[in-house]
Amino acid sequence: MVTSLSPFRSALLLGSAMPLLALAPQAMAQQLNEPQTPISAPDAPVPTSDDQIGFAADALQYDSNQEVVTASGHVQLLREGNRLRADKVVWDRDTGKVEAQGNVSLTDADGNIAYGDRFDVTDTLKDGMVDNTLLVLQSGGRLASATGTRVNGIYTLNRAAYTGCAVEDSKGCPKEPTWQINAVKVVYDPTRERVSYTNANIELFGLPLIPLPGLSHPVGEGGGNGLLMPNFRYDRNNGFEVALPYYMKLAPNRDLTITPHIYTNALPMLEGNYRHLYDRGAYQPPAS
To answer: Taking the mean position of all CA atoms in its chain, how far away is CA 194?
Structure first.
């Protein structure tokens, strides 16, 4: 039997192997205008157990014979802190497959938001794959890729790019980042707060500049070994300069930063900065 719920916005709780538990009409929501802005709509009801999925949509069809739920219009699914939003969602309750299309976003329990053209995920909303991915990290930075997967909370992106720069100008219009790291594959592990690259290179103003084999760096405030923000400047003697600091945490009270400096009009230079915090003070060698 196929049951249709429209034109009212419907919100309900579905169990992965249970009938309909609750149903209530809600107001229509505003449409998503840009990828970086989640749909502003009444939220799906919060599940009371891990076996339930909160579901909200403008129109809903439920085929009880095939166990297929088809939702359209500002669709939201909520399970175990993961929230999926899309224009249309087809959920096969027998296989657990969820296919989402149109203005799709998936927010995980850590606050990272993945945007894409089409998502194929499981009904746990934890594992799946996505085409044309934009991953906005809760701790800062963005990753974009042609395809991507999420398995056990770890994101793997193919033909990807990372940047910590703003991708909008002061008026909110899109712009190319000043620098970005391109790679054949990028892996982001939210638990370790680390991004790792395969065959990476840094790109400055759209031009590939420095190959970075085996690169990885931390994100967020947890700290750890990794690449810091590149520095760029120009003077008449050395010409254009690129400095790429690499931070190494030797101990909770000791660290070392190695910075290669590359110039257009002079030989390259390597700079080191060692710091040590003692019980009665701190030690840092003077800059040369």
So the answer is: 12
How many other CB atoms are there within 10 angstroms of residue 166's CB atom?
11
Angstrom distance (rounded) from CA 85 to CA 21: 21
CB atoms closer than 10 angstroms to residue 204: 16
φ/ψ of 199, rounded to 5, equals: 55, 60
Which tokens hold the place of 104? 């799709």
Model pLDDT for residues 172-223, shown as the tens digit of each residue: 455 567 778 889 999 998 888 888 999 888 887 777 777 877 788 777 655 5
- Does residue 7 have a cis peptide bond before it, meaning omega lies within 30 degrees of 0? yes
Instruction: Please report the beta strands in 32-178, taking only residues with DSSP state E, as ranges in sequence order.
Output: 52-57, 59-63, 68-79, 82-92, 97-107, 113-122, 128-136, 142-151, 154-163
Q: Give yes or no for a contact between 123 and 53, defined as CB atoms under 8 angstroms apart.
A: yes
pLDDT tens figures, 119-165: 998 878 888 898 888 888 887 788 888 888 989 889 999 999 888 76
Cα 127 from Cα 150, distance rounded (Å)? 5
Measure the CA–CA gap between 137 and 163, rounded to whole angstroms.
11
Non-local CB neighbours of 271 within 8 Å, separated by 6+ positions: 243, 258, 259, 260, 261
